[in-house]
Amino acid sequence: MAKKILTILGSAILVIAGVAAVSAYEAYVINVTAHIENALRIHPKSFEFGTVFPQENFAPYTFEVSTSDSFCESTQKRVLNVDYKIVRKPKPRDPVDHQYCYDHRLDNPKPADYYTLCYPIMCAALSGHPEYPGGPLDIGFDSFTDPETVFGAGHLHKKISLTDPEDSNTTDIWRIDLDVPCFEGQCAQDWTHQGYELDPSQEGQNFGCDLWVEVTNIY
To answer: Would 13 be classed as within a structural domain?
Structure first.
């Protein structure tokens, strides 16, 4: 009886092995490809105000937010709209430290190495408004507002019909202004933005802020 059981088990192993050997000679390939490209194009990607003085106002720098070539091409009709937002974030001295600067932006006091890795923040001093408002979805932001809760928003779209493109809006132009804050204890009498004064110990330093254009919806 024991011998019979062993024989059956051996046969089962041979059958399974035979199925595996046969399947190794048969294969099918399903080709999967995708062209991946950003929906937006930004130009220019940087600008510098240079040396400025407290309570000066500098205006304007402008930049374009436009749809990419792939988004605009005539054969692409699956998605026609892009929503985006413009967010003010702390500027790292090296881009690799962006997350660190962002994570510790609200710390008070800041970590000992914060200003070694990050610029003193001037985000609240920037305002941004669409130069050519395209509709209710294009919303600007004012200076001396909280970057945590206040940001810009825009909407771009193209029309399917190439013979009637009048309603297309594939480029937004944004105007960026710098409203220079004063140092605490040194503000003029007409200063009206209490709470946004700069630390006097940072006088003479370079300040920075990054504007992040982030896609929020494609449809």
So the answer is: no
What's the structural domain count of the chain? 1
pLDDT tens, residue by residue, 62-106: 999 999 888 887 677 788 899 999 999 999 999 999 999 999 999
Closest CA to 91 of 131, 55, 125, 62: 125
Residue 127: partners with Cβ closer than 8 Å, 6 or more residues away: 140, 141, 142, 143, 176, 177, 179
Give Cβ neighbours of residue 199 (< 8 Å, ≥ 6 apart): 120, 183, 184
Hunting for tokens 């194009």 — which residue is that? Answer: 41
Instruction: Examine residue 8 and state whether it is found in any structural domain, yes or no.
Output: no
- Positive or negative torsion for Cα 207, 145, 62, 90: positive
Q: Is residue 183 within 8 Å of 55, Cβ to Cβ?
A: no
Distance CA 111, CA 105 (A): 10
Residue 8's Cβ-count burial label (10 Å; 0-12, 13-18, 19+) is: exposed
Q: Residue 213: give the domain boundaries.
A: 40-218
Q: Is the pTM of this model over 0.90?
A: no
Would 99 be classed as within a structural domain? Answer: yes
Query: Is position 2 within any domain?
Result: no
Q: Kindly give the residue spans of alpha helices, DSSP state H, lying in the chain.
A: 2-23, 69-72, 98-103, 114-117
Q: How many CB atoms lie within 10 A of CB 168?
A: 17
